[in-house]
Design brief:
Length: about 120
Amino acid sequence: MTMEPQTPPGPSSTGTDPRTWAIVVWVLLLLGYLTFVTVIVSVVMAYVKRGDLVGTPFESHMTSAIRTFWISLIAGVIGAVLTVIGIGFLILAAVIVWNLYRIIRGLIRAIDGRPIDDPTGYL
């Protein structure tokens, strides 16, 4: 069964294509591996734009990006604390893999104009 990509809606009230907002949020999250500032910018942007994107396939991207940030942050802090007993390194590695998976999946779906199937899920 093949799914046709959804046609993204036209420009939002801000004059920018909703797909652009989703792509920018995911790219900024990805750039967070170079500088944490972009992560903060992306999360703030996701919170601000989520309301503007209600009813579009890209609303789910904002929810997923916000959730990816918070889960990664909490799991990362837990992993960092547990590095004292060694298991933290495994947790941190798992967080990095999970985070990259979510970001890359989100970016691909945003480029294709498809929503995130379960934006509040863990995968």
